[in-house]
Design a protein that fits this description.
mainly alpha; globular
Length: 303
Amino acid sequence: MRLTKNTQGALFMAASMAGFSCSDALSKTVIATMNAGEIIFIRGLFTSFFVYLLARRMGALRNWRVILQPMIALRIACEALAAATYITALGMMPIANASAIQQAVPLAVTLGAMIFLKEPVGWRRWTAIAVGFIGVLIIIRPGRDGFTTAALLAIACMFATAARDLATRCIDKNVPSLMVTLCTAISISIFGALCIVPFGGWQPVSTTSLLQILLASILVLIGYQSVILAMRTGEISFVAPFRYLSLIWSALLGLIAFGEVPDGWSVFGAAVVIASGIYTFYRESKRRAAEPVAQESEPRVPA
């Protein structure tokens, strides 16, 4: 039976989320014997090598001057911050909880687009954003002493990732995506090297850990390419919600590899975040579909 474009896109997105989740699990495994700076450095070297080969094969390499743009520098900085905070958080909290908090990234992107890019956001999406962040609070449940270090790191990663996505929107479209990815990978590797000493110094790297990081790098690359294929194959409004499969992958990996069982409140909070995100996707697709009509009739309040 021939698959529809949307079904193909959904399968690519599911594969992408599996790749990212497995990479996270591998990073969580090695964080017990290595510091985050080492992991970022070594993984960055592997990723840079693979992306360079891919970019060269696809003819995406350009003069390095094309990447001298403020938005690319901002994207790299946000990506580095997200990597450092997320890998560190993985060593302190269940992988499913860390993944669930990251599901609020689309909500943070919508909020940032409204504040910094002046995109219209109506009361319905404002409500969805507020409910989604309440879901994040349910997941982390700050105690009498406030937020834990792990929770703060995961939240910082969420906002850094959202800022990265907003910066990506502003990059000159003439710069190939693989060129941006290559510069990001190289910069993150350098960032990781600079973090090794502040994060506790270089720790011996076993062959097993090195192979795990190598596999994590390959899975990240597969994840990124699958996302691109998913977005280019199916309709974004249909494909995008399948991002939330990463939470299922993470929960399964946490249970199988680390014996982590999410409690009821974490599951409920994750459901709230996912429902808010899906509703935001729905309102966004409905708003975009109505734009041509709105241009021919009287102005309407944005969704």
